[in-house]
Amino acid sequence: MENFKLNYAVLQYMPDPIRREAINVGVVFHCPSRNWSEFCPIKNKSRLRSFDDEYDKEYIDMMFDSFDYEFNSHIIDEYPERFNRIENENFLKENIKFYVNEFRFLPVESIHTNDSEFWNDIRDVERTFLYYDKPKSERISSRDVRELLRKNLANHNIKNQIKNLDVRCEFGSKKVFDFMYEKNVFKAISFDKQKSGQLANELKIVCYDILTNREKLNSYKINLIVDNSIILNKKLGNNSDVFLEFKEKITKEAENVKIYTLSEFGERMISNNF
């Protein structure tokens, strides 16, 4: 089955340029070979209200309508010329560069997809960057994140550089990390959020595996990817406390460890900034 390119750009809202705090509010997709583009906004705007003390519903709705008009290629009206260059690879890049104030886009990124995976890949990108807009049952899993990263790296013609680092758990033959790219190793941490005991056990194992292999790992950057909610959701109670204790311990004892949420990881994936 023939592969083709799917481009996307994440839309962020930054109400205060001094604080420079931003929230992901949408993703624009563009498929040159299909002459197609579409804006996918967040649907749950309650997070926007809590993020911005001066939330202006009319202004936000107006901007979202303008993104629909600008990027939804299925909307046919008396001004179709805005899509004259939609088959061009730079269509998305050229059309997002004008947004530099409260609404701005992260750099355009691409993955390779095919007819059978097209909508699944779009859904995975949405679930990565618009994480809280989805019901818990539809949120992206650790396995999905690993697969999305592999596809992203493959688009940069470095698929053959994605390898496995031969560092194994002391008990059993399971590998400690999911994969390696250059001098970066990656591990996605998954757990049942309802069971703080399970999370504690999972993190103890991760901590033990890293610290017992410290000498082998000294020259690597260790990237741990966790569920967004474990850091950002204060309602998780004991789970949050357990995670914060783990974070403090592992980053203190192993300075080459970095911990990212899924959305932070996705943004770094775009810029290859690990």
Automatic annotation (TrEMBL):
A Pfam family reported for this protein in Swiss-Prot or TrEMBL: DUF3037
Record InterPro entries: DUF3037 (IPR021398)
Protein name per its UniProtKB record: DUF3037 domain-containing protein
